[in-house]
Amino acid sequence: MSATYVVAGPEQTCMTDKDDHVAYKTFEHKVEWLEHDASACGAPDRWGRRVRASTDCFNAGDEDCCRGLTPSLSATGAPADPWCTVWRNQDFCH
Fold first, then answer.
1. Would you say 29 and 23 are in contact if contact means Cβ atoms under 8 Å apart?
2. Does pTM top 0.90 for this prediction?
């Protein structure tokens, strides 16, 4: 039995998501990365996904609340615009 060696690519932003709650809202920064099996097994590539960061807001507009994710977005090379404006709540994940 041979070992599986997975090489993960860099995280990339694929979605900013708004969740409405009774007294507040939450914005989530979702990222994904491509995993490649570099072993002799040669399993097919697959996508991994996770919530990288989230922010809760009580009395802020949607765009201002989403901009609380700016440090996390910047860490993946994604600017807050357009992720907190025209692309907000659009799923670009695989």
1. no
2. no
